[in-house]
Design goal:
single chain; alpha/beta; 5-stranded parallel β-sheet; two-stranded antiparallel sheet; 6 helices; 7 strands; 44% helix; binds flavin mononucleotide
């Protein structure tokens, strides 16, 4: 089994979302000692913003690509190959200014490629990354989950489903900025949810 961990916090592995993701991955390693873990840290190795030039590189015919376009396509291809190889995808997901980190948006913009990760059909787009399971560890200063103000969850679910990843589980740690007590309670609740999820993995192994 291959597990891809995407850390999207500004604070890399020190981010609270990355730490929850780490805790889950440690539990997965205990349940599946042979799991191959790949960590991609989008703060340490940022993906550039998508620009018209970069998007045109995706559209150019392979034989017509400039050297610059070829480099853009190869970098995107490498991200897609890493995603394709993963059976399990773990995302540490902070909320920044009511949405996903721009680092994650830039990553999404470079893995959504027609013909590679989705294709258009007469019935609409079809995701090509099927058979995967995703776990998302969402951390927020305030409280949003289950309310219409949580556009982040809907967006991430919709994007992953567009690529064919429909089996997605969210664990939230919310209210981290409200008070010490609220923070501690939220982290304890998230730790319990992680223990339950990794316990299920142990039973299934
Ligand atoms: C730049 C920035 C913007 C933030 N915006 C929000 C926000 O819109 N809503 C919220 O509830 N918390 C917000 N927070 C708090 C973070 O969601 C919270 O600290 C979270 O735990 C960060 O996760 P991380 O440590 O993995 O980066 C923001 C934090 C930062 C640094």
């Amino acid at each position: 089994m291959t597990l891809l961990q995407l850390n999207t916090s500004l604070f890399s592995s020190a981010g609270q979302s990355s730490q929850l993701a780490d805790r889950f991955v440690a539990g997965m390693k205990a349940a599946h000692p042979d799991v191959h873990v790949v960590v991609r840290d989008l703060a340490r190795e940022p993906i550039p913003h998508l620009t018209a030039e970069r998007f045109q590189a995706f559209l150019a015919e392979p034989e017509a690509r400039s050297i610059e376009q070829q480099a853009v396509v190869e970098a995107s291809d490498a991200l897609i190959a890493e995603l394709q190889a993963a059976d399990v995808i773990v995302i540490g997901l902070p909320m920044y200014n009511f949405g996903v980190p721009s680092q994650l948006k830039a990553y999404f913009d470079h893995v959504a490629r027609a013909g590679s990760t989705f294709r258009y059909t007469e019935d609409g787009p079809v995701g090509l990354l099927t058979g995967k399971k995703a776990y998302v560890f969402a951390t927020r200063g305030g409280l949003y989950a289950g309310t219409p103000r949580d556009s982040e969850t809907a967006y991430v679910r919709q994007f992953l489903a567009f690529l064919g990843i429909t089996d997605v589980e969210f664990v939230y740690a919310e209210g981290l900025a409200i008070s010490d007590a609220s923070r501690q309670a939220a982290l304890a609740k998230a730790a319990n949810a992680i223990a339950r999820l990794t316990g299920e993995q142990r039973l299934a192994a």
